[in-house]
Request: fold
Amino acid sequence: MKQITEDVHLITGVPPYAINAYLVGDVLVDAMTKRDAKRILKALRGHPVVAHAITHAHPDHQGASHAVCETLGIPLWAPELDVPAVEDSALIAQRQPDHPINRLFEKLMTGPSHPVSRVLREGDDVAGFTVLDTPGHSAGHMSLWREADRTLIVGDVLNNQHPLLGFPRGLREPLSFFTPDPERNRQSIRRLGELDPAIVLFGHGPAHRDPARFREFCAGV
Ligand SMILES: [Zn+2]
Reply:
C-alpha cells in the first residue's frame, strides 16, 4: 500500500492502476472485484479500518465489499441511489447498458449483495472528506472532496487511463457502455473541474497533479 497524500493510501493490483481502491483515514473506499478480496485484506493488515464506503455500485468497485466487511466485521456505506444495487447485486448488470462486456464482467467481477449500514448523501463526512453527488456513471455515484488540501477522489466520473486497455494514460470520460447517462456524467465532470483540485484520485489510472490541465479538460467535455 502506497501513501498518496495525507491520510490517503492507494491499494492497487496487477497491472498497477488498472483498478484502484483507497484507504482514506480508517475507511476503505472501493473494493475492486470479487477476485481481489485477499489482495485488499493483505494490504490493510496492520491498519485500523472502521468502515468501507463505495463510490458506486459497479463490479470493479463493490466486488470484494461483502468479503471485506464480513472478514473485518465493519459496516458498508453507500451513496443513496446506489444502495438498491449494493443490497441486491443482480441489479448492477440490469442498471448498465446491455453490452457483452457488462455480461462478462457480471460473471467475473460482481460480488455478493451486502446490507448498507449508512446511506451517504451530499454533504456527509467520510473520514474528513465531504460527499459530493456526481451521478451519471451510475445513478448514485459519489465523489469525495477534502477542501483543506484540495484532494478529490472521483471514482469513475473520469478515468486517467483507458479502463480496459490501461493505455493511453490521460484524462478521459468513462466508456459509454459502462455509463448509463453520459450527459449527466458530463455535468458531474464539469462540477468537479470547478472545484480546482490539486490532486485527483481515480478508480482507474494514476493520480493527477496538474490543476490547470484538469480544469481545462473538465470544462471542455
Ligand atoms: Zn464504474
